[in-house]
Amino acid sequence: MNYELKRFLLLLLSLLLICSFAFAAPPVQVQTKICLYCGAETASDLCDQCHELAEAWTCISCGTRNLSDTCSQCGLERQASLEQQAADPRPQLAFPAVRFLAAAGDPASLLRLGQFYEKGIGVGKDIDQAVSCLRRAGEAGYAPAWIYLGRLYDAGVDMKQDPAEALNCYRKAADLGSPEGNWYIGSFYEEGTVLERNYGLAMDYYYMAAEAGDADAWMSVAYFYLVGNGVDIDKDKALEYYLKAAEAGSHLACDYLGYLYMTGSIVPQDTQKALEWYRKAADLGNPRSMYALGYAYQCGQGVEISMEEALRWYEKAALAGHPTALIVYNAFK
């Protein structure tokens, strides 16, 4: 083989190699999906973690497993079933639907997934992922996500405390029409943190929150009249606003009115009225009032002594999260 031919073949081979690299197929992007059985991310039809069909969903209404968009047994739509499942208070049941809907951009599910990342439920505890989910939900116009994120920055648990960023989150929530967002802004003016203390502006924000439907905000107004924050002390007005809060459905106000009547603060002592308010608060889920009713039955405070009733209320209080109710319940059980 002469030199010129050899040189030509080598050049041709080089060109072929260059072309093969230039036109090589791009790397295949593996599409992951969320398993509707366990909530894990998986790249295959059979979940890598639980080995169930990843796309199969369990109807929340009748328990039937399905692959189609409509339940073969009861006719419930998959989307409706997943939304109900995601709203279930039991995290283990809710998690697969929450993660699936969050991946699709559902703001309420992004908020709950953020809470799961914050607490390490179903996924590894990851505060950065939690913040990311909450921000995505907030930026989609979901005010509760800004409120929750604000509380995280306020508390500084597992992350750097940042009151200024907390206030920023509350303002974003308020801009979206959140009464709670207005209440938090009022609390910053009341406390003088980040913002200069201004009781007048605090009261304005509390009124805005209350009139927009935040029943607990009337308690803040009542407290200002009780202690004289920017207004003259007026216990009658304070009582008026505590009653307004209770009538608007605030379990905190009902519980506090029970305390006021039980102790004779602001109002004449009246054990029966106190018990009435405690019962209203307990019916609304207030654990302190549940505990107070347990104590009343234990000691015969306005009712006949009944350890059976006392234990029933202590148990309710413990299940509702009262810090010492479980200790008392176990002591007398």
Structure description:
The model is unreliable at 21-25 (pLDDT under 50). The protein has helices at 3-22, 78-86, 91-103, 107-119, 127-139, 143-155, 163-175, 179-191, 199-211, 217-227, 235-247, 251-263, 271-283, 287-299, 307-319, 325-332, and strands at residues 33-34, 41-42, 57-58, 65-66. The strands form two sheets. Strands 1-2 form a two-stranded antiparallel sheet. It has a two-stranded antiparallel ribbon with strand order 3-4. Helix content is 61%, strand content 2%. Helix 7 runs antiparallel to helix 8 and helix 14 (287-299) packs antiparallel against helix 15 (307-319). The chain contains 16 helices and four strands. The protein starts with a helix and ends with a helix. Among the domains are: 34-104, no CATH class; 263-333, Tetratricopeptide repeat domain (Serine Threonine Protein Phosphatase 5, Tetratricopeptide repeat, Alpha Horseshoe), CATH 1.25.40. It is mainly alpha-helical. The chain is globular, with a radius of gyration of 29 Å.
